[in-house]
Amino acid sequence: MQKNIQASQLEFVALMASLMSVVALAIDALLPALDIIGVTIGTTEIVDNQLLITMIFLGLGFGPLVFGPLSDSIGRKPVVYMGFALFIFASFICVNSTSLEMMVVGRILQGIGLSAPRTMSIAIIRDMYSGDYMARIMSFVTVVFILVPVIAPALGKFVLDQYNWRGIFYIQVLISILVSWWFWKRQPETLTINNKKSFSKKGFIGEFKELIKFKRTIGFTIIAGFITGSFMVYLSSAQQIFEDQYNLKEEFPLIFAGLAISIGSAVFLNGIFVIKFGMEKLITMALVSFFMISAIYVAIFYNSPNPDVRVLFLFFALQFFSIGFLFGNLRAMAMEPVGHIAGSAAAVTGFISTIMAVPISIFIGRFISDTALPLFIGFSICAALSIGLIIYLKADEKRATETI
Question: Residue-wise over 273-304: b if at least 16 C-beta within 10 A, else e?
Answer without folding.
Answer: bbeeeebbebbbebbebbbebbbebbeebeee
